[in-house]
Amino acid sequence: MRDAAGPPRWDSATGLTGRRAECDVLDRLIAAVRAGESRALLLHGDPGVGKTALLDHLAAQARNCRVVRAAGVESERELAFAGLHQLCAPMLDRLEHLPVPQRDALGTAFGLSTGPAPDRFLVGLAVLGLLSEVAEQQPLICLVDDRQWLDRATAQILAFVARRLGAESIGLILASRSDRGDLTGVPELLVQGLPEPDARALLDTVPTGPIDTRVRDQIVLEARGNPLALLELTRGWAPAELAGGFGLPGAAAPSGDMAALSGDMEENFLRRVAALPRNARQLLLVAAADPSGDPALVWRAAGRLGIGGEAAVPVTEAGLAEFGGRVRFRHPLARSAAYRSASVQDRQEAHRALAAATDRTLDPDRRAWHRAQAAPGPDEDVAAELERSAGRARARGGTAASAAFLHQAAVLTLDPARRAGRALDAARAALRTGALDVTRELLAMAGAGPLTAVQRAGLDTMRAQLAFSTARGGEAPTLLLKAAGQLEAVDADLSRAAYLDAVSAAIFAGRLAGPGGDVLDAARAAVSAPPPPHAPRACDLLLDGTATGLHTGYAAGVPVLREALAAFRSGLSAEEQLRWMWPANITAIRIWDDDQWAALSARYVRLARDAGAFGELPLALTSRAHVLLFAGELASAAALTEELQAVKEATGSGLAPYGAMALAALRGEESAATAVIEATLEDATRRGEGIGITFAEGANAVLNNALGRYDEAMSAGLRANAYDHDPAGLCWTLAELAEAAARCGAAGPAADACDRLGVMADAAGTDWVRGVEARARALLSEGEAAERLYREAIARLGRTRMRVELARAHLLYGEWLRRERHPGLAREQLRTAHGMLETMGATAFADRAARELRAAGGTAHRRTTPARDEELTAQEAQIARMARDGLSNPEIGTRLFISARTVQYHLRKVFTKLGITSRSQLDRVLPRGPAG
Hints:
By secondary structure, this protein is mostly helical. The chain is about 65% helix and about 5% strand. A hairpin with a 3-residue loop joins strand 6 and strand 7 (about 325-330). The two termini are about 50 Å apart.
């Protein structure tokens, strides 16, 4: 399967005509890898343009390097990890050197061991670690051809690895017909057609005899510099036809129409297939029907069809395929032509022979797949075998393969009820893989059949999840409510879980929820949910407290929500905690319990990391980053937002950048904050994520309050608080509105914000909410009342973790004292505020405090020499803190999705910058803050 760009002996030639610029790029890549660096590169271009030939060139030039290769095969796209196994198989002797969780994940993925389905990104970390281990011995070059045909799991993991390479002496080069796809951030090299002089030179290497000048011009014109076309368009024509100008198409396809050129090449292959003897065509069809390239299997199947070894001779002579250590086709179009030109009956016979020749014990899944392709119609025996294959694929973590097996099983099922059930199972697997169009098709198939009540509710739940995956808001809450209602009479626990999901989805959709999916609609339905058939669990209490608070009133839900958080302290498995940890974190914020929030967010991150639950980790890191932001630990929060970005890139998570947005606003970084706020507003509106608008406008208010632009802050605060169906969603935006409105003299909006804070303060009663309320009311008060409220705010907030809120209380109190003509007292408060805010890194608020301090006759002392850790890059600082806290290089690499060798590379730079020589000295030179 090669894109030839050299002499016609496509199976061995590595010499190139032209391509000097491309070869220079590849040669520099090899030099960098030999020098101890890592490089990733995407080669992309049209079929036949010479990508494989460039990979061959690179392999030939990679002297003193270890070279491993793999290639995608279209018919293996549904076999999870097939391409990855092809690439890693020669290196599995180093598997034992990986950390146990990674070793187990990769072993399970490759079928070397049994166990639960491995997390996709633990497998990615394992591959990164394996390549790094091999590269310790010798620089490593990994060449992957036909990336467009790789199975989804392999493509995702190689994209992950390509983005995480650092200093491991690894080169990863992927060749693809299409452009980058999910390889954002990976360098690329577009391979285009040869210039006309090089095209003519390549054509001269084809041993065809003399070619008429007009024919030569026509070939060069139609090939558009495509090497494979230059070599193939002349094959199959007699020398007389080439010399006299007969036989070739008379007109060129429109410029740039590579689809037409591919069609011409495939027609050429079709013509050559049709000219073969019958037994040779059958042999070629058997080879085309099996993507493994295993010659023993092909010959066993051929023997069952009465085909002998002599059939391979005309196939090889026609330049279509060769049968050696592996079966290799001249080009994917040659495989396609061999398969497409056969009748349906002939294809079924080929697959039947392959199924019979495949060992049912060693490779039951490939045997099941061939049996399915051989089936002329519905076949329950084959469908049941496919269902068993789906189970094995799921155990290996091959969700995409499981979905494909189940999909085919459903198609081959005649019984309507069983067909609908299998389609529903297939849809569930397809949804997990992100194959949304396939999921939609399978849900339609399931919906057309008879379903049980539980299945019908499952169908509606998946429709809701599909809607949520597509657009966040929209109809997801409504569909979840419908599913929850259907489950009431069937399974109370499942019904209550669906109601809690529906309420959560409605909170997420916020002001952009569709009809019937508003948070009040969801709460109204949820309060009528059937009671649990046992003592209330933590999730039951979360549902009851949240729904009651939204439906009846904030105060009514608080006692139950306190009980729910208490239930999270013990008695729950790690899996149960992870399932409900996000709503538990939101509940801690809802009742203004900063101690519970801090504890839950830390546990959430730890659980997600330990379990390798990378789908949960973005939410966990977002919650933890906000705890640290409120605590004034901006540097630690920044480290978590860096980790969050790495996780989002690795997982493809679409979560809005809430942490980065709040961090930029609190720091007062106007250009950065404005850019991320505007992007979030646009993205949240498009996806129906109403809560994103609240957070973005809230960050806008924080930014403008910090900069002293109170009119803009008030406008943003009014927009943030315009949707008030969920008061708890406004925990910090109300305080921003109160401050900005008071500064603008807008007593009405300021008083309204204070009253809404007061409702929550009376019910929750924590120092956090009472301190924030007191600070807000002080802004609207005068004389002794104002002073008493400011002092109350400082006293209450001083007993919490919320150091930013405390520092801002000192700032507002100092500003008030200066206006009241108490400059000495004002300087005391403003100096405290300035010192706290500057130490935190809340630069704009610190500057505001400095201006007020100077106006009060004081001096604001700014640090003139940066702390030593500020000399580090963000990633170096993050790695240094983790090393200081006792994490090993592999543990740091696991958290940051880089190899242990890259961690060591960064630590060496850290030691040099900080003037130390060992990890034990990091504690002396790095300040400590709350752990992330």
